[in-house]
């Protein structure tokens, strides 16, 4: 017996509602989505009824290589013959190899890594690192940004996520994204770090001014604080370069990666940083531990992910496909008056529309047209569009047809925008 289809769709939805989340079940019911994933392969998802969607959500980058990439699956299966999670206290060959590979691929002199399981945990450690190294407390971050739902990461997130759980950790100060003057005013002698997503996905993928990160680097150097870049969604080739920050020609002190590092099959994250920033750990090397962080099975998978995503042919495909989609999206923008702007670096794409609520409407329209994509939760005028990085000409043709169909559906349902805004 397989692992999907053991129950009917209605029975699964009922059990999910009863034992997992009645609120999510109600939300999907309200928007007319009853998709329950079954088979998944490459760029495709099939539900229990055989309905097929191209995955252009990719869980924010988890499925950068598509679903069940043959090289990744083969690596994990072979590793299971020899390895397990490992012991997080002991020296590990697999963690050493992966950290070495990360150091090789990082910009500048970033050469050290601490592993975690998810992006929030990795951001938490980056903030621990900044406070531990500098002895300072303040963290400057972007208003409307998103770094996860764990302790410090949540404190550096949007108010809608923080408010129900206050009081959170003190010392966090928000500034408008892309505003170097605001950063300069906020950073003082008690600032431990400045933390940004290179391009904030949940905020709707606004592209920073070209000189923004150069100025942030200068401010951090002047004040003696760390520059932390959250590359959970922009890293691993998504923008056409290995790391999104490479487009802006600066080297931060810390880079955080997760999601896609898993290959879609084994959760793992990494906080990568310059040598010497962990000096405070000399007194107690076990002051930060993670039972499942850097699990040896996950390390082997992640090493294969890095091997694939760092291939020049792989990155060239991202750039080439990004150019093809840019042309398609530009034409759709000209054709539909509700499309305001296309925000894009490689295959990291935000479709910005004229007002809040259009993002969810276009996402629902994509679903009915054969594409899975989601809206930006902190700016619902934007739909995120993150196709797998393995897409080629055939998939681009599919996107051209289905995205045009989704635009037409959305244009015929304009009256839903007000209802969506009230619902959200």
From TrEMBL:
Gene Ontology MF terms: identical protein binding; pyridoxal phosphate binding; transaminase activity
Any Pfam family matching the protein: Aminotran_3
Top-level taxon in the UniProt lineage: Archaea
Classification via CDD domains: OAT_like
Keywords, sorted A to Z: Aminotransferase, Pyridoxal phosphate, Transferase
Cofactor: pyridoxal 5'-phosphate
Family in the record: Belongs to the class-III pyridoxal-phosphate-dependent aminotransferase family.
Name listed for the protein in its UniProt record: Putative aminotransferase
Taxonomic source organism: Archaeoglobus fulgidus
């Amino acid at each position: 017996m397989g692992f999907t289809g053991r129950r009917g769709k209605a029975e699964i939805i009922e059990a999910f509602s009863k034992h997992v989340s009645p609120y999510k079940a109600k939300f999907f019911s309200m928007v007319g989505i009853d998709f329950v994933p079954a088979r998944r392969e490459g760029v495709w998802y099939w539900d229990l009824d055989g309905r097929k969607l191209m995955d252009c959500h990719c869980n924010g980058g988890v499925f950068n290589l598509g679903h069940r990439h043959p090289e990744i699956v083969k690596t994990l299966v072979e590793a299971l013959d020899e390895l397990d999670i490992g012991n997080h206290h002991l020296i590990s060959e697999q963690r050493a190899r992966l950290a070495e590979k990360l150091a090789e691929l990082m910009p500048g002199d970033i050469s050290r890594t601490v592993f975690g399981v998810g992006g929030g945990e990795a951001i938490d450690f980056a903030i621990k690192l900044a406070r531990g190294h500098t002895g300072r407390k303040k963290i400057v971050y972007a208003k409307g940004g998103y770094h996860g739902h764990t302790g410090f990461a949540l404190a550096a997130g949007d108010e809608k996520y923080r408010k129900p759980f206050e009081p959170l950790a003190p010392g966090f100060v928000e500034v408008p994204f892309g505003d170097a003057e605001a950063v300069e005013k906020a950073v003082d002698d008690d600032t431990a770090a400045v933390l940004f997503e290179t391009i904030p996905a949940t905020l709707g993928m606004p592209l920073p001014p070209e000189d923004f990160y150069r100025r942030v680097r200068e401010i951090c150097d002047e004040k003696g604080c760390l520059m932390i870049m959250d590359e959970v969604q922009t890293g691993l080739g998504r923008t056409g370069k290995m790391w999104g920050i490479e487009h802006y020609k600066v080297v931060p002190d810390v880079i955080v990666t997760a999601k896609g590092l898993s290959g879609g099959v084994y959760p793992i994250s990494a906080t990568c940083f310059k040598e010497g920033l962990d000096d405070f750990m000399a007194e107690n090397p076990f002051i930060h531990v993670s039972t499942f962080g850097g699990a040896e099975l996950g390390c082997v998978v992640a090493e294969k992910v890095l091997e694939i995503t760092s291939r020049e042919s792989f990155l060239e495909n991202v750039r080439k496909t990004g150019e093809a989609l840019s042309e398609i999206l530009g034409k759709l923008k000209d054709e539909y008056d509700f499309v305001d702007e296309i925000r894009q670096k490689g295959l990291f794409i935000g479709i910005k529309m004229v007002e809040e609520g259009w993002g969810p409407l276009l996402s629902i329209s994509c679903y009915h047209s054969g594409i899975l994509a989601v809206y930006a939760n902190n700016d619902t005028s934007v739909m995120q569009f993150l196709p797998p990085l393995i897409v080629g000409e055939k998939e681009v043709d599919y996107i051209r047809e289905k995205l045009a169909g989704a635009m037409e559906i959305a244009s015929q349902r304009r009256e839903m925008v007000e209802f969506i805004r009230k619902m959200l």
